[in-house]
Amino acid sequence: MLEAQGNQDKSLLGAAGKHGDGGLCTEPDAAVTRVFELLGKRWTGLLIAALMGGPGHFTELKRAVPGISERMLSDRLSELVAEGLVSRHVQEGPPLRVSYRLTRAGEELRPALTALSSWAEANLDGAAGRCPEEFHAPPARKPPAEPDA
Q1: Cβ neighbours of residue 52 closer than 8 Å, sequence gap 6 or more
Q2: What is the pLDDT of residues 52-100, one digit of tens each?
Q3: How many CA atoms lie within 13 A of 142 on its CB side?
Q4: Where in this protein does the record put region Disordered (predicted)?
Q5: Less CB within 10 Å around the terminal CB: N or C of the chain?
Q6: In a 3-state reduction of DSSP, which class is residue 17?
Q7: How far apart, in whole angstroms, are the C-alpha atoms of residue 71 and residue 62?
């Protein structure tokens, strides 16, 4: 089993070279390089993760990914649409609304993102536990209490 895993790792990572200390060093193959070129961009993974819960409108996505500017959100969504990971749907208005949802290819990232999330919780400080506060929806406002008669 371990030998099979090692062979799988070699095929994912590409050709192996030698370190001076006798350890193996691998050069990532084109597929690994390409996936990290795309998903390694700031905000991209967070947008895909936000869309894992279902479709979202621009303002909902901006709220779901704190700190992203409108310009960057627009750029990242355009890139994801061009790559075929996200589809854009225009809902005629008024008001005209645009929603975004993962395509089948985007949905196929779920197991990889789940595995990365599990790894992060086990290995990165501050990654375990509940959702960071900035990702929570604002609390619902309570109606004003009626005065006692």
Answers
A1: 102, 107, 110, 113
A2: 999 999 999 999 999 999 999 999 999 999 999 999 999 998 888 999 9
A3: 3
A4: 129-149
A5: C
A6: strand
A7: 10
